[in-house]
Structure to design on (243 residues):
C-alpha cells in the first residue's frame, strides 16, 4: 500500500498502540493506594480508590487547560488529598513517583518489539503521546530518536501543534511522515489534518466510523504495518524473512 509512497520518518503513538494501558493504570493506582495506606493512612481511611479517582476527575474538570499534562493533574490531585487529610505537600511528589514507576511497567503487545526493531533500522521513529510514559522506563527508548509529549508542546493531539513539533524535530515535511496510532480522532484525524500520512492501528477490527477523514492504511498489528510498508518481517528464529 505504501510501497510507492515517500515516507522518510514514522511517528508512533504509545498507549494502546505499543502496549495496553487501562490495566497498567488500574494496577498503578492500586499500588499507590496500598503505599498511601502504609505511609499516609489518613488518606486511605477517608478514601477508597474510586473516591481518589473522583478527586482526580474533579481537578481535571476544574483545569481543562491542563488536560495535556496528566502528570501535573495527578500531582495536583495528590496535593488536594494531602491538604484535605492534613499532610504536607511532599505527599504529592512521593505518591506521584510511586504511581509513575508502576505506570511505566508496561508490557508491549507481542508483535511490537520485533517490528520496532525492523522499523528502526529503516526509518527514524519518533514517539508522539498525549500521555506521560517514559520511553526509558518502559524499555523502548532504544527504538526511538525521541518522544514529543503533549505536556512539552502545551497542547494535546488531535491539535496540530504536537504534529508540527514532531515534524520540526524530525527535520522533514509532514507530507513524508507516517503517523501510526490507535485513536481515530487523536491519531488519524489529527495527523491527517497536519498533513501527515496515517495508519490506523486497529487491533480489535473495528469499522472506521469518521466521515470527515480516513486513514491511508489500517493495520491489525505491527506485523501488518510491516507488510504495508514493505519492510521484511522477522520470523520466530529472529532472522529476516525474504520474499
Ligand atoms: Mg493511544
Amino acid at each position: 500500500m505504501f510501497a510507492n509512497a515517500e515516507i522518510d520518518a514514522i511517528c508512533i503513538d504509545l498507549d494502546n498502540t505499543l502496549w495496553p494501558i487501562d490495566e497498567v493504570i488500574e494496577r498503578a493506582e492500586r499500588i499507590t493506594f496500598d503505599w498511601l495506606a502504609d505511609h499516609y493512612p489518613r488518606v486511605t481511611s477517608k478514601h477508597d480508590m474510586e473516591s481518589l479517582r473522583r478527586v482526580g476527575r474533579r481537578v481535571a474538570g476544574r483545569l481543562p487547560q491542563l488536560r495535556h499534562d496528566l502528570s501535573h493533574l495527578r500531582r495536583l490531585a495528590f496535593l488536594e488529598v494531602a491538604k484535605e487529610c492534613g499532610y504536607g505537600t511532599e505527599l504529592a511528589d512521593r505518591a506521584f513517583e510511586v504511581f509513575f514507576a508502576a505506570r511505566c511497567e508496561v508490557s508491549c503487545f507481542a508483535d511490537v518489539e520485533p517490528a520496532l526493531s525492523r522499523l528502526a533500522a529503516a526509518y527514524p521513529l519518533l514517539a508522539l503521546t498525549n500521555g506521560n510514559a517514559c520511553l526509558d522506563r518502559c524499555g523502548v527508548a532504544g527504538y526511538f530518536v525521541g518522544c514529543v509529549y503533549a505536556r512539552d508542546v502545551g497542547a494535546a493531539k488531535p491539535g496540530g501543534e504536537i504534529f508540527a513539533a514532531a515534524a520540526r524535530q524530525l527535520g522533514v515535511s509532514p507530507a513524508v511522515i507516517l503517523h501510526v496510532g490507535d485513536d481515530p480522532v487523536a491519531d488519524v484525524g489529527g495527523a491527517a489534518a497536519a498533513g501527515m500520512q496515517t495508519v490506523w492501528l486497529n487491533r480489535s477490527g473495528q469499522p472506521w466510523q469518521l466521515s470527515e477523514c480516513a486513514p491511508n492504511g489500517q493495520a491489525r498489528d505491527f506485523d501488518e504495518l510491516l507488510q504495508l510498508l514493505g519492510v521484511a518481517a522477522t520470523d520466530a528464529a529472529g532472522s529476516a524473512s525474504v520474499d
About this structure: The domain at 9-19+109-229 is CATH 3.40.50.1000 (Rossmann fold). Residues 22-39 form the longest helix (18 residues).
